[in-house]
Amino acid sequence: MATSRKTLLNSLMKHKKRLDEQPMRVQFALDPNRFKRYSASASDLLLDYSKNRIDEPTMAALFDLARAVDLEGHRKAMWAGKHINVTEDRAVMHMALRYQGDKPVKIDGRDVMPDVRAVLAAMKSFTGQVRDGSIRGSTGEAFTDIVNIGIGGSDLGPVMATLALAPYTRADLRLHYVSNVDGAHLHDTLKGLDPKRTMFIIASKTFTTDETMTNASSARGWIASALGEAAVTDHFAALSTNLAACDAFGIKSDRIFGFWDWVGGRYSVWSAIGLPVALAVGFDNFEAFLKGAYDMDQHFLKTKLERNLPVIMGLLGVWYRNAWGFATHAVLPYDQRLSRFPAYLQQQDMESNGKSVDLEGKPLAIDSGPVIWGEPGTNGQHAFYQLIHQGTSVIPADFLIAANPHEQMAPHHEKLVANVFAQSEALMLGKSKEEVVAELTAQGLDKAAIKALTPHKMFPGNRPSNTLIYPKLTPEMLGSLVALYEHKVFVQGTVWNVNSYDQWGVELGKQLAKALLPKVLGTAANEGNDASTKGLLAHYHKLRGMAE
Ligand code: G6Q
Predict the structure, then answer these.
(1) Ligand 1 mean position to 152 CA, how many Å?
(2) What does the pLDDT read at residue 441?
(3) Among 15, 22, 454, 488, who pairs with 58 as Cys (CB 3.0-4.6 Å)?
(4) Are 506 and 156 in contact (CB under 8 A)?
(5) Which atom of ligand 1 is nearest to the CA of 266?
(6) Does the pLDDT at position 513 exceed 90?
(7) Where are the alpha helices (DSSP H) in 384-432?
(8) pLDDT above 90 covers what percent of the chain?
(9) How would residue 508 be classed by pLDDT, with cut points 50, 70 and 90?
């Protein structure tokens, strides 16, 4: 019988014990080559992982672990189009969407590349025509505002990428994203928009998601009441695998952009779901985004595990989750335009590896995915970094920084860089009692004050972080970064032996509200639920002036 995951992960504990006694600052003092030893790159992207609780035997044990769980075999299976999404019996092949080579990419014996290229060509033509004004609204006006209606995987990727690539967008073609079923989202987005110059894109893999369909129907009403029912076809496009439902909605066939069931929602920004990004930044830039992801695919496929960025980052995450028990992981981009990157990764990672049964359906005997969270720096420094520095929880973090800003506004970027380097250094070094006492003494404080203040001003240090540094946040680099994290999630899912590609927790949400809606509306009796739900419904009815 193969060694269990629990046994494999337990074997890491002896390394933890050793490292518990040798903090990073000691290791840095002993090894002037530590940065060189623990940094690796994928083309222009450098990962410095030297500020982690690691040494050579630990890294060797982590790579052994990757081999023991047959990471390379699993990777090969994914690329070969095997149905590794076992609960939905599907291949996982979003890499085909960005494939730049000329070999066939087969799923179930069929080369999918002709279909992929046909959709890309249609996207190119459509986005080009909208951008140059040859596709216009029903009254002949060029579009100035595009509203993408979608949620989850049909929203987060395009929102994140559009914000990240703001320097490549045009001021006269604005992208808006509506996801929440809360009417406030659509209402506030439409406020000030002119129906004559507004196009809606309905982005939904299934074309059945209630939030999206509700927003789509209200948007349809907004266009129809302003411009007439016949205008709908000129003002709507759709991105979906459900072509029949798009057609039934009234969307013209040449404005429906398809994709396939082997593209998971949270992995779909590379597909037709990326259309709003291509509209915002132009198709050439969208292609560069795909190319950057392809480069990372090649790195992940071809680089030996010891130099492989997604493998290193994935294994470090396993190390902290399973050997040290750290429950959360922060992603801290020092890049304002990556403001939605942590939220995007939250879905990518937590929906993928937030699982508690293994591939065979047996309960996991080990911890799986951590909580992913974060905000851009330096804002976070003035808020939650306090806990990262001095709280009782240790939170491994990824810092991201570009060497070159898009704006020539010295000294802004230089200050940003100084802050990000300072943070990871401070987290690693901490501040000892001796250092605090010396500092307070130099400030001239008396003995009693020093004694009282010292514990508050000490920092434990030895807090781990990775730093990712790249020349500039270009479309290509963004593609590489997103693909890096996708593959990191794959590595971790493989170690934990979970299906990273289903999302039954999401499906549950899609069903629950449906059952309750008639009771909210008051068309069904308020009975059958638990006392809390029943009480909340009754109070809601009272606040809305409805009879119970
Ligand atoms: C992603 C999930 C989920 C999905 C949304 C929207 O992997 O499956 O976030 O993207 O529920 O689904 P539709 O695109 O089908 O509307």
Answers:
(1) 5
(2) 98
(3) 15
(4) no
(5) 7
(6) no
(7) 385-390, 412-429
(8) 97
(9) confident
Report residue 126 as tokens: 């459509």
Q: How far apart are CA 377 and CA 423, in angstroms?
A: 10
d(CA 328, CA 321): 8
d(CA 14, CA 58): 9
* pLDDT surpasses 90 at 514: no
pLDDT for residue 1 is more than 70: no
Pocket test for ligand 1, best of 486, 489, 503, 510 (most atoms within 8 A of CB): 503
Query: pLDDT tens digits for 354-364?
Result: 999 999 999 99
**CATH of the structural domain 107-282, one choice from 3.40.50.720, 3.40.50.300, 3.40.50.10490, 2.60.40.1190:** 3.40.50.10490
**Phi, psi at 378, each rounded to 5°:** -90, 0
In the reported structure, the alpha carbon of residue 264 is separated from the centroid of ligand 1 by a whole-number distance in angstroms of 8
DSSP-assigned beta bridge partners for residue 458: none
The CATH code belonging to domain 5-68+303-429+463-499 is 3.40.50.10490
For the segment 56-68, the average pLDDT, to the nearest whole number, is 98
Measured from the Cα of 240, ligand 1's closest atom is: 14
Burial of residue 426, with CB atoms counted within 10 A of its CB: 0-12 exposed, 13-18 middle, 19 or more buried: middle
Catalytic residues: 351, 382, 510
Neighbouring residues of 419: CB distance < 8 A, sequence distance ≥ 6: 334, 377, 378, 381
